[in-house]
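Lecture 7 notes. Example A: sequence first, then its structure tokens.
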Amino acid sequence: MNTEIPSVVIASLARQLAFVSAVVGGFAITYLAVLLSMADRRRIIGVAAGFAMFCAANLLVCALAWSLYAGMYEAKPTGFTVPVAEFQTKLRWLNGALVAGLVCFLAALGLGGWIRSRSLGVVTTGFALLALIAVAFVLRGVVV
């Protein structure tokens, strides 16, 4: 098993995760704006808006941090490697923030259907849960 990660691999991974964080964070901001513009004052809208706000703020911080990490590791000399354990320790908080942001985004989307009707709420919650399973499957090998 390889115990070192080349800095170019870390930089590439960080750039991709920065992009994903920025895109999903942007969607969350748009969704939050739609929720906040609704005249309806039901509790479900406030809860969905809370999840969207947490997601947006969290993922924008992640996008910034991943971008900075990408720049930092791109500046390393050719052939520079980082021990896997060190990489995992340094970025554990950022990985957790990314996962928390994605979970909150899916929660906000899942709750969105309940604003309209019970049947749509069941459908959106089901799809959000399926998406959560898919995200967990995809990120299990990427996010350390």
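Example B, a different protein, same format:
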Amino acid sequence: MNLCKVHKHSVNSYFNFSLPIDLSFIAGGETMQRTCRIVLIIFPLLLVLILWFMSNLKIAKTQDDLKNLLRQDLHLSEEDTIISYIDDYVVDDHALLWFSVQKEYSTDYRAMDCRLLKNGGYILKNIYKPMIYSQDIVHTMWMNGDIFLINDPDCRAITYRDSSHEIISKIELSPNDIPYVFLDKPPSDATKIDFLDSTGNIIR
């Protein structure tokens, strides 16, 4: 019999001794490495997205800067037109600013949808070409509402009529009220809105 041949399990059972080794730190290290690789992949992509967003963000410090952005959007030179701020409609930290675009023989209007900054600046979100009621009475949809601009010095009243053409609501205006910006909130039974001059005629 070969006395030098000793089985491993015999030694372990003889001494009743074991050396348990916790290998969880190895798994933890692999998880950490995997997390680092994911971060190294995502971070550059996130940085690129942030830089792209910032480069496309239109920030204006003043209304003059907004005018310049509007001029660029319309592809107009300073010699061709005069852009003037008229009035605004503000809801919380959002504002719709109205501007007139005066050319040699005509005047157009644009509404600029902006986010108001705490330092007094603006983030331009959109520029709207309004719908025309008359030459100097225009309106556009904004924040689920219809916002009107009245820039007609002859306008003296806003009226709402029902299906029988009877006036059911009337807002009187004075020359000092112009320009006038308001959210159209017609009575429930109103079917038509009109704008009247000083003699009561409908402005067209």
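Note on Example B: The chain has three domains: 23-56, 58-129, 134-204. The first strand starts at residue 58 and ends at 60.
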